[in-house]
Every structure is written in structure tokens, then in C-alpha cells.
From TrEMBL:
Cited function: Involved in formation of the rod shape of the cell. May also contribute to regulation of formation of penicillin-binding proteins.
UniProt KW keywords: Cell inner membrane, Cell membrane, Cell shape, Membrane, Transmembrane, Transmembrane helix
Keyword Membrane annotated: yes
TM region positions: 53-72, 93-111, 131-153
Major localization class: membrane
Pfam families in the record: MreD (PF04093)
Record-stated family: Belongs to the MreD family.
Membrane topology classification: Multi-pass membrane protein
Keyword Membrane: yes
Locations listed in the record: Cell inner membrane; Cell membrane
Organism: Pseudoxanthomonas sacheonensis
The organism's place on the tree of life at top rank: Bacteria
Name the record gives this protein: Rod shape-determining protein MreD
């Protein structure tokens, strides 16, 4: 018995992540905005590596740069670095318990902040304020429910 194809879930989840990144937040909550796109991409790189590779990450990053009005290529670079690291450790990461997976994703999101800081430093732009460093913690806490939700959508109800 074969499972029904659910090819629409990946593009729809990427679009939702892009829209969540555009959602206006009050000034106090803005620094806490999780990097939704990275969380969704991490899921797809871990669970569907044939569909979500470096080229896909670069394309999604360029689209995000255009949508968010950031430096062209910055988010593409961030997505490619994250995807490369995830691909490298995917085999181990898939079998971690959810708490360790969340911790690993938190470290990846922290690495993403470091890459962002390095790009800003290289371009002479102001550094991110200290409170922006809390977003990886929130992303780490959001990983388990997000993973379970996307897994349920991708796999569907088992017979």
C-alpha cells in the first residue's frame, strides 16, 4: 500500500515561513522573532534531503533577500551555510532524541547569528543589539512542535 503524494507541503511551508518573516511585530518583540525560514529549511533538509539541497537553499535565500529587502545574497549565504552543516550531520541528527535535536538546531541558529554578525562587521554596518541573540533560544524551543507538526503533515495519518 502506497502513501499519497504530498508534494505541496514543502513549497507551502516555505511560503508560510517567508510570510511569517514579513509579519510586523511590536518593537519589543522584534528581536525575539525566530528565523522561521531556517527552521522550515532545517526540517526539509533533515527529512527530504533529495528535495532540499544547497541549490534549493540558495534559491530560497535569494527570494528571502528580495522579500525582506536585505543585502542581496546575505540570507542566501546564511541558508547555504546552515544547509551544508545539516547535510554533513544529517545521518546522526535524524536519530537524536527530540531534546538533542532542538539543542543542535539552537546551535545552528546561534551560528546563523554569528554569520550575520560577521557579514555586518565586514560591511561596516552596525552590530546587532544584544537582545537579538535571544531569537535562537526561541527557535530552539519552537523546534519540537514545528517538527512534529510538519512530520504529521508530510506523513499523514498512518493506516
Amino acid at each position: 500500500m502506497s502513501r499519497p503524494r504530498r508534494g505541496w507541503i514543502m513549497p507551502v511551508s516555505i511560503i508560510i515561513a517567508l510570510l511569517l518573516g514579513l509579519l510586523p511585530l511590536p518593537g519589543l518583540l522584534q528581536p525575539l522573532r525566530p528565523y522561521w525560514l531556517a527552521l522550515i529549511m532545517a526540517y526539509w533538509v533533515i527529512e527530504a534531503p533529495d528535495s532540499a539541497g544547497l541549490g534549493f537553499a540558495f534559491t530560497v535565500g535569494i527570494i528571502a533577500d528580495l522579500m525582506f529587502g536585505s543585502l542581496l545574497g546575505e540570507q542566501a549565504l546564511r541558508m547555504v551555510i546552515m544547509t551544508f552543516i545539516l547535510q554533513r550531520f544529517r545521518a546522526r541528527l535524524r536519530f537524536f532524541p527530540m531534546s538533542q535535536q532542538a539543542l543542535a538546531i539552537g546551535v545552528l541558529l546561534l551560528n546563523d547569528r554569528v554569520v550575520t554578525g560577521a557579514v555586518h562587521l565586514a560591511l561596516g554596518e552596525p552590530a546587532l543589539p544584544w537582545n537579538y541573540w535571544w531569537a535562537p533560544v526561541l527557535g530552539m524551543l519552537l523546534w519540537p512542535p514545528l517538527f512534529v507538526m510538519l512530520d504529521a503533515l508530510r506523513l499523514g495519518k498512518r493506516q
